[in-house]
Amino acid sequence: MRRRKFTALSLSVLISISMLAGCGSDKQTNTGDSSQSSTTAQGTTSGENTSGQDAYTVKILAPGDASTEDCQKVSAAASAITKEKFNTEIEVTRVGFGSYDQQVNLMLASNEKLDLMYQYCGNVTTAISSGQILPLDDYLEGYGKDLKEQISVDDWRCVTFNGNIYGVPSNKEKATGWGFAFNKEMADATGIDYTTIKTQEELEPLLTKVKELYPDVYPVVSHTGSCSSMTKQDDLGGDIGSLLSVDSDNTEVINYYASDAYYNEVKLRYDWAQKGLIMPDASTSTENANSLIGAGKAFGRFSNTKPGIEQEIAKESGKEIAVVELIPPYTTTTRVDIVWYVPHNSKQPERAVQVLNEIYTNPELANILINGIEGQHYEIIDAEKGIVDYPEGVNGTNTGYVSLPWAWPNEMISYVWNGNPEDIWAQTESFNKNAIVSPAKGFAWDNTETQSEVAACANVVAKYDLALMAGSLDPETTIPQFIAELESAGANAIIAEKQKQLDAWLEANQ
Questions:
Q1: Which domain holds residue 140?
Q2: How would residue 265 be classed by pLDDT, with cut points 50, 70 and 90?
Q3: How far apart are CA 230 and CA 203, in angstroms?
């Protein structure tokens, strides 16, 4: 397999490389330079012993707080499995969410060795065409047969571009709801029945009472600068151009930033900010929202919803968490939103895929990488049911290796954390199955014809959207300027091209 040559991109473009959301046509054949590889692309299944391979270290970049010392311990424990089986060691590096994208950008731009990396959401057309993310088809045939068989055809389509697979989708929830997660003890102290809250507007009395009772606590905080939007739009693969709502048959592509729905939401956020309900400078904060809740500095945050979300945030914050759902679960192509890639920096991509296959299918290895070292980062409290908890004196705020099951390739073969339902993974499967399905689920947006407009519009969105969603800008005066700059940057051309592609896809998939 010939690896594509890397073309350097500016950091501003690199920042956009997150999750690809493509749905391709017939598979194309790649040719390849295997001079850097000690094995052939024919590979082996994970059931075969390949310990006779040349020694190699697979470097993994994953998100989440962890100390260097703890990452080294986890790497050693994981390597004990892969070295015996593949003569391969694992080196885990973890970076906090506030600086993860920057670290990815630096490693890609500097050509520093990197074999596997996590990314979340976005559009990677430019990265793919520039060779930053490697096509995996031939490697999967030889080294990833097990995971390839376990992942559905629909999910593979969501990580396919121009007929080639470019990433491995994580096995987790593949739909999302949206809601507000908060400190349950503080909420109970208000005396307000928060279980009846169904809309953002209905949150305000609760937030106001929290501010009154806890004047030194921010009622709402951002998560590393983002206050999530509570909407049901389908972004159709990223960039400008969305369907207004997934639960409608209307497939008109619109500029969502020019919609009444967007205006009404950011107007509410602005009003809240004026009342002191949202933390100051929320859009520029690099703070982890769960850490702020854990430190007693914050009451709540906007969050996705899914089975076990309360315990997930509680585990990281150390506080009992309640969640009110504001938007029911739905699924789109881009909701297959955690993807693992082999970047161009990998010296032996086939060995990276071999290890990825083992992580996806081997519970012992998956649990080490997800949860860390037994007795230090977690302890088993029910071996039969596979339930774990923190050891005495350890919690989400002081562990040296934060457990984020959803961020790894296959959380559904990992332990269940205490406080979650014992059948959390069965609930997750049901959650995926019963979600509202967008009429454009499976559509692949190809921005090749509008790349200059896409880049220009991305700069405009970065200038305004986070600040508007955090209540930092007055929408009355800002949105007209926002829309005008988007149109000058070529938003209408993007929307027209996306509508053309969507119409063709709908026609072909009637």
A1: 11-26+42-172+337-371
A2: very high
A3: 13
DSSP conformational letter for 392: T
Q: What is the pLDDT of residues 53-111, one digit of tens each?
A: 999 999 999 999 999 999 999 999 999 999 999 999 999 999 998 888 889 888 988 88
Whether the predicted pLDDT of 23 surpasses 80: no
Same domain, 80 and 124: yes
Compute the distance between CA of residue 373 and CA of residue 209 in angstroms, rounded to an integer: 42
Burial 348-365 (b: 16+ CB within 10 A, else e): bbbbbbbbbbbbbbbeeb
- Cβ atoms of residues 432 and 331 within 8 Å: yes
Which pLDDT band holds residue 48 (cuts at 50, 70, 90)?
A: low
**Based on the domain organization, do 351 and 396 belong to the same domain?**
no
Q: Give, as one character, the DSSP assignment of residue 340.
A: E
In a domain, 443, yes or no: no
> Measured between alpha carbons, how far is 53 from 38 in angstroms, rounded to an integer?
8
pTM of the model: 0.74
Rounded Cα distance, 180 and 204, in Å? 12
Round to whole Å and give the CA distance between 31 and 220.
Answer: 52
Q: Tell me how far apart the alpha carbons of residues 333 and 349 are, in angstroms, rounded to a whole number.
A: 26
Could you say which DSSP state residue 448 is in?
Answer: G
As beta bridge partners, residue 365 has none
Last residue of a domain, one of 363, 397, 428: 428
Any idea which residue has 């007055």 for tokens? 474
Least confident stretch, 2-11, 192-201, 361-370, 392-401: 2-11
Q: In the prediction, which pLDDT does 98 show?
A: 84
125 falls in which pLDDT band (50, 70, 90)? low
Q: Are residues 415 and 345 in the same domain?
A: no
Q: Under a CB-based contact definition with an 8 Å cutoff, are residues 56 and 348 in contact?
A: yes
Distance CA 167, CA 129 (A): 14
Give yes or no: residues 345 and 408 share one domain.
no
Q: CA-CA distance, 111 to 101, in Å (whole number)? A: 15
